Amino acid sequence: YNAEIDNQTEYMEVLRRDTGYPVSFAEAAEMFKGWEEDKHEDILTYRDKTHKNLFTGVVSPVLTKPWVKLLDDSLETYLGMEYVACDGGQTNGHSRDNGVTNGLH
After folding, report:
1. 40-89, pLDDT tens digit by residue?
2. pTM: predicted TM-score of the whole model, two decimal places
3. Is 13 helix (H, G, I), strand (E, B) or coil?
């Protein structure tokens, strides 16, 4: 899957340069590769990983229980979820900043 992601990223970079879009897709591609690795490692836990917003640097919040045990994907439940602070570990090749309580404001 890494070769496919690299190929797609290369094509998007050509389009980015041709249109003058100022943001490179390289970091997004690395994050996507990490997401794929997490998914292949454990299909039941990859949704529990946090990710850094490439534009703001804010790390996504951590769920208080595993995603697979939520058993409700309604908008009401999603908006009412509780989160905990990130532990400063590393996910998908991106460092998580300590002290980030959640990405919601």
Report:
1. 999 999 999 988 898 898 988 888 889 888 888 888 887 887 777 666 55
2. 0.67
3. helix
Closest by alpha carbon to 62, among 40, 89, 30?
Answer: 89
In the chain, DSSP assigns E strands to 62-63, 83-84, 90-91, 94-95
Separation between Cα atoms, residue 30 and residue 25, nearest integer Å: 9
Full DSSP string of 8-70:
HHHHHHHHHHHHT--S-SHHHHHHHHHHHHHHHH-TTTGGG---B-TTT-PBPPEESS-GGGT
Please tell me the distance from the alpha carbon of residue 78 to that of residue 75, in angstroms, as a whole number.
Answer: 5
Give the distance from CA 92 to its chain's centroid.
8
